[in-house]
Design goal:
Order of helices and strands: HHHHHHHHHH
Number of helices: 10
Mean pLDDT: 84
Number of domains: 2
Largest sheet: none
Strand content: under 5%
Distance between the termini: 39 Å
Radius of gyration: 17 Å
Low-confidence stretches: 169-175
Amino acid sequence: MTNEEFTSIALKLCDILEDKYLNKDNDNCKHYEEAIKNYSPYFGGYIFLKDTIENIIIEVGHVSDIKADLECYGIKDNPDFHFCFDDIIKVAEIRSDWEKALSSVDKGYELSGPIGYGFSERDIKNLAILHRDKAKLREKIEELLEDCNFHQETDDFSNGKYDKYIKEQKDIERD
């Protein structure tokens, strides 16, 4: 399968999976096609598919069903593109329970690589709440944010400025 063929299948599969598991009856494929222009066409399909799968696992689970769906479309692990279903599951586990993940490591930055050095808005909201409410995790959260180059968030959290991160997420959820 060429990369172009895979990207086309991956973008359509993102729509199918979101519709099936998240009840999103919309055509995000056009959105993905536009957004993919900002990524290397060589990796874009994998990035969007990985993120879609991760979000579904966090929201609703259905891990074995999703894996079966991928197999039906001929999607398999591909180390050349850093696409590994087991790794996606691990990242979803981290993102779905930051407190557990942070408690399982000695230093917060140990989670940076597995999560791909990035955060969703939901991640930042959850980390802000944890930082505010769990003093024992503050240092690890700051180490993680710093290692991922989220310096402004680190500064805001360490100065007790959580509202905009928590409020922004609430505003998004209302839309």
